[in-house]
Amino acid sequence: MTPIYPFSSVSQPYPQHQWYIAGWSGEITTTPLRRKMFGRDLLLLRTRNGDVKALTALCPHRQMPLCADNQKADRLICPYHGATFDQQGHCVSLPFQTHIPQGMDLTPFPVVEQAPFVWIWAAPEEPADMSRLPDTSILFPADDKKILFGTGTCHVRARSQIVLENLFDQSHISFTHPKTLGTRDIENGPTKACSIVEEPNRISFQHPARKHPTSPDIAALFPNIGPITSVQSRAELFGVSLVVAAGSEIISCNQEGQPGQTMGRLEFLHGITPETDTSTHYHFAILRDFSTDCDELSDLYSERNRSVITEDIRILDAIEPHLSTADGRHEPNFTSDAEAIHIRRRIEALIREESTVMD
Questions:
Q1: Which of these, 293, 236, 224, 300, lies nearest to 262 by C-alpha position?
Q2: Domain segments of the chain: what residues?
Q3: CA dihedral 285, 203, 35, 305 (to 10 degrees)
Q4: Cis before 116 (ω within 30)
Q5: Which of 108, 161, 199, 201 is most deeply buried (CB count within 10 A of its CB)?
Q6: Rounded distance, CA 17 to CA 159, Å?
Q7: Alpha carbon 53 to chain centroid, angstroms
Q8: How many CB atoms lie within 10 A of CB 224?
Q9: Of the candidates 20, 65, 15, which has an alpha carbon nearest to the alpha carbon of residue 42?
Q10: 213 near 250, Cβ under 8 Å?
Q11: Do 19-128 and 138-358 fold alike per CATH?
Q12: What does 286-335 look like in DSSP terms, one character per residue?
């Protein structure tokens, strides 16, 4: 067996007995949304009572795609031969016969809505394991003042694993994002992870705090901040799909650099979901708890984040065509790849676990 890139021991491109982000709560309405995931054409829709459903999007009779243009009330009608389906995916009527052949139902995929996310279980033939559903409550405390903004979804012509690993790769920032994120001191290298918190559904890399004199821009955002600013950053993976990258806590310090009050938090959310074995849906958003009524600041962060993601996608799209014959077992790694490799080994272990269960 030749392992699939970038793994060293498995031929499956991503874990299947897992929850992935299907989309944002706000984009799923009573009008069906077509989205290919896990190599299958799916429909995402919201029922009249507000529940989200995910169904295969092809009529089982002749594989005709179902679409919103052929929706009548809460029924989906195949535009080819008129088969009618309810919102559970059951074929409820045919125009020319009363008997409904076996196999005419659409396949439902388990979904769970935890706003702002809608999660989908990637293996509908297996019972959905709720214990694998990530707990994202840490991102949205009940008494928090955070706002969510800059949400969106884009397409990457590259496999999900390299999209995921890129979010834990710090050494590319100076070269891929010099205009949007700036350059770092190459001689000193990227930030090193000082600690790792690893749980069954979450892994967090806590980076050393970076201290620097408070800039005029930071002082304008936080008038009461001290002369030294400390930025504590982290990168986290929730389950296998949701990444909080460059999650930053901005801390006020005195002249000696002693930390004091936390002034604000800024977190960038990335939802990575396989479309096919070699393409990916990339969901993104930002959270912050300061200047929450400033639309101009929201627009500034949103525009920059989209530019950063566009720069990453340009790189990932260029790499993918060369991976069909690549072998991760013989590829060299840099010391700065440690976090990305840790993520790779974690995902690979989940795939091996699935293979063992199926065997």
A1: 224
A2: 19-128, 138-358
A3: 20
A4: yes
A5: 161
A6: 18
A7: 19
A8: 9
A9: 65
A10: no
A11: no
A12: EEESSSTT-HHHHHHHHHHHHHHHHHHHHHHHHHGGG-TT--GGG----G
Task: Give 24's contacts (C-beta < 8 A, 6+ positions apart).
Answer: 116, 117, 118, 151, 153, 283, 285
**Position 184 pLDDT exceeds 60:** no
Q: Give the residues across from 251 on adjacent strands.
A: 230, 262
CATH of domain 138-358: 3.90.380.10
- CA-nearest of 128, 355, 131, 346 to 243 is 346
Q: Which amino acid is at 16?
A: Q
- Cα 181 from Cα 77, distance rounded (Å): 48
pLDDT tens, residue by residue, 106-164: 999 999 999 999 999 999 999 999 999 999 988 988 777 899 999 999 999 999 999 99
Q: Which range (70-74, 194-198, 201-205, 261-265) has the least confidence?
A: 70-74
Q: Which two tokens stand for residue 135?
A: 């707990």
Rounded CA-CA distance 266/145 in Å is 12
- CATH number assigned to the domain covering 19-128: 2.102.10.10
How much is the average pLDDT of 50-72?
92
Instruction: Say what the pLDDT of residue 175 is.
Output: 73
pLDDT computed for residue 172 by the predictor: 79
Q: If residue 357 lies in a helix (H) or strand (E), which one and from where to where?
A: helix 338-358
User: Is-contact 14 347, C-beta < 8 A?
Assistant: yes
Q: What is the pLDDT of residues 208-250, one digit of tens each?
A: 888 889 989 889 899 999 999 988 888 999 999 999 987 788 9
Q: Please tell me the distance from the alpha carbon of residue 284 to that of residue 270, in angstroms, as a whole number.
A: 5
- DSSP H stretches of helix in 90-241: 160-166, 173-176, 216-221
Contact by Cβ (8 Å): 252, 229: yes
| C-alpha to C-alpha distance for 273 and 155, rounded to whole angstroms | 10
Please report the sign of the dihedral spanned by the C-alpha atoms of residue 14, residue 20, residue 21, residue 22: positive
Per-residue pLDDT tens for 119-135?
999 999 999 999 999 99
